[in-house]
Design brief:
By secondary structure, the chain is mostly helical. Helix 3 packs antiparallel against helix 4.
């Protein structure tokens, strides 16, 4: 009976060695899974573009389709929206550090994140992307 308990304890101790290994390898697995799924998604998107372009006879419509897909990638960065999200993440982190944990380092890190968000918002107002959106709308109207 004692031998079986001893073997169980040894087995549990050997599992304890695997925990840091899994902790180190888990981000690698996550990145690998995201990469595989994203490449599969890109492949499906390009296959769909090829199928749609086979059915379109006018080359100008194909060009408009490709431009519309590339424009979505460009306009995904809105510094003002990102800044607001970052500010509130920083405020939440500061409140957690001050009231929840009582740790000044977490409070300071939260303030740092909040000030980064303020900087993003200021950059969003200094460099707005609305002019590009207006130019695209005018150009698409002139084509019609």
């Amino acid at each position: 009976m004692f031998i079986i308990e001893y073997q169980a304890v040894e087995f549990m101790n050997s599992l304890g060695v695997l925990i840091p290994i899994f902790a180190i390898l888990m981000p690698v697995f996550i990145v690998l899974i995201v990469h595989v799924l994203e490449s599969k998604n890109q492949k499906n998107k390009y296959d769909a573009i090829i199928e749609v372009s086979k059915n379109i006879k006018d080359s100008e419509q194909i060009q408009e389709l490709l431009e519309s897909l590339s424009e979505r990638k460009k306009s995904s960065l809105d510094l003002r929206r990102t800044g607001v999200v970052t500010i509130f993440v920083g405020i939440g982190l500061s409140l957690l550090g001050y009231y929840g944990l009582g740790i000044d380092v977490v409070f300071g890190a939260g303030l740092l994140v909040a000030f980064i968000g303020i900087g993003q918002m200021i950059a969003g107002y200094i460099y707005p992307n609305q002019t590009e959106e207006i130019n695209r709308a005018v150009e698409s109207y002139e084509k019609k």
